[in-house]
Amino acid sequence: MSAYAALTGAGFRAQVRDKATLFFTFAFPLIFLVVFGLIFSGQDVKASGRPYISYIAPGVMSWGVANAAVFSVAFTLMQWRRDDLLRLIRMTPTRLPAVLGSRYVLALGVGVVQAVLFVGIALLPPFGLELKSSWPLALPVLVFGITAFLTIGVVIGSLADTPEAVAAIANCLMVPMAFLSGSFMPMDMLPDWLQTGSRILPLRYLNDAVSAALSGRGDMGDIVLGCGGLVVFTVIFGAVSLKTFRWSNRA
Amino acid sequence: MTDATAVPAERHEATEQTTIVIEEIRKRYGDRDAVAGVSLQVRRGEFFGLLGPNGAGKTTLVEIMEGLREADSGKVTVLGQQPWPRNVALLPRMGVQTQSSAFFVRQTAREHLTTVAALFGAGHDAADSALADVGLTGQRDVMVENLSGGQRQRLAIASALVHGPELIFLDEPTAALDPQARRDLWEVLRGLKRQGRTIVYTTHHLDEAEALCDRVAILVDGRIAALDSPHNLVSSAGVPTRLMIPEGRLSPEDALAIEGVDSAELQGGSLVLETRVSGQVLTAVDKLAGLNDVQTRTATLEDVYLELTGSLAGTGQDGDNDTEQQA
Ligand SMILES: Nc1ncnc2c1ncn2[C@@H]1O[C@H](COP(=O)(O)OP(=O)(O)O)[C@@H](O)[C@H]1O
Ligand SMILES: [Mg+2]
């Protein structure tokens, strides 16, 4: 068995055996989707005349996927460093790309399962999401999004030395960002300056691109712009993560 | 006292029979020498102990040999190669014990070991035979989180041998174990030695070094204070033998009058005599008080160690005297 396959297998088992993480990855975002979806069932957003679900479904999906990517890699990295597992890996001939590759594939797998689950639920009659023909484009958008948020997770996992610190930093970042990027409520409801200001947030780009692909709120240009923005964030946080990465908590 | 620098006469034929050669290794942290010029050789198949109080520099020295740290100066050769920077050709030939928490989470013992084996590119049976080597076959399907302290320690050691390395580094593997688990682990370690592996072992348990190691280096303040077999260290140290005579059988004055008795003191219900000629003194005690219930305690590595660490701690450093004594 290759190092890559073994690491992916171990990561997969760790993921499916962790009930709390499974809940926060799959069930928690669904609660938002269901609650908001039922409250606003059949209603349209006044500013645009579009059904509310066409906002909330892509929004919750983007947030859920981004959140899972950030938390999973940040927790894993913090824990591997704290428990000296990074040191164990460093003492084997396994090259870093095999380690990174396995984590990347796991994160993409989780993101795809989340996307299918959330969209599947939103399509059910009480919610009534209508998919546009451009929906397959949501897949590459998700890949760009997961990549960007993984690099953010690596930075957090390098800075934080305890699970509490990971949760604190990641929540401080992800919760306000979800509201300001239009994940839980339509951007149209926010003041103009916030709509413009939120362009500094990576989740805004993911949200816009996923919305454009799934529910046609936006066009091809929005998808390309979203992916471009995510690539820029990937480069920035990738560079930062190279600076902050530590093999061990001991100097 | 054994002089470490005088030990290896065979320095120049340091090839076939020598697994590790380090020469004049130094490592400084801030204004403190963690390792202050250490030279030693570890022979093939040897069980080599590094002994010393906390902060003596054992871990730093071992990590330099493992290639986890770079020495400031000096030369390190492990299995004929340089361990620093990360030497991917050398890594499969070495096994390094990590903390007993370095496990892939939510895996069984066997799943964890299979993953580690794959990181080394080792075959599929590797995990099962490593589990057998450390006596964990019965726990193979137990989640790593549910193993006891001793079992975790053994799994950490199994992780260091799963790929069949020639050379194994163990840094205080028995530190957190209860006495029974410690003894059990000794058996595991003896088994590894019988398989012909070279083992570098740090500990501050002296009984352990005496029971397991072929040779021991005693490290104090980053320097080697002594390096020899436990037997030679004990016999060359000139530490007196103690005779314990039940109180009341012999007065301290009479005892001191015996030729060869260096001191006589009442301690905990016994009259304790110190002597370097125990045979002669025992004969005299026999005549004066009889040998019933008289106990003798000969020198152990612990005495050598206490003498060395007590007299040397702090001397090499400028006013730095915070070395903790552990025995
Ligand atoms: N990364 C580090 N930074 C600064 N000082 C260190 C570091 N690692 C070890 N030291 C210091 O070096 C000395 C030797 O430490 P160490 O090698 O861990 O000793 P031992 O393993 O014998 O207890 C100690 O004084 C310790 O505080
Ligand atoms: Mg140490």
What does this 3D model show about the protein?
The complex is a heterodimer of chains A (251) and B (327). With 251 residues, chain A is an all-alpha fold. Chain A has ten helices and two strands; from the N terminus they run H-H-E-E-H-H-H-H-H-H-H-H. In chain A, 73% of the residues lie in helices and 2% in strands. In chain A, helix 2 (19-39) packs parallel to helix 5, helix 3 runs antiparallel to helix 7 (163-180) and helix 9 packs antiparallel against helix 10. The two termini of chain A are 34 Å apart. Chain B is α/β, with parallel strands linked by helices and 327 residues long. Helix content of chain B is 31%, strand content 25%. In chain B, the strands form three sheets. Chain B has a six-stranded mixed sheet with strand order 5-6-7-3-8-9, with helices on both faces. The longest helix of chain B is centred in the middle third of the chain and has 16 residues, at 179-194. Residues 1-14 and 314-327 of chain B have low confidence and may be disordered. The A-B interface holds A 1-3, 5-7, 9-10, 13-14, 17-18, 79, 83-85, 87-95 and B 66, 68, 86, 88-89, 91-92, 94, 96, 98-99, 101-107, 111-112, 114-121, 124, 159.
Please give a handful of descriptors for the protein shown.
heterodimer, A: 251 residues, mainly alpha, two-stranded antiparallel ribbon, B: 327 residues, alpha/beta, Rossmann fold, Alpha-Beta Plaits, 2 domains, six-stranded mixed β-sheet, four-stranded antiparallel β-sheet, globular, disordered N terminus, binds adenosine-5'-diphosphate, binds magnesium ion, ATP-binding (chain B), ATP binding (chain B)
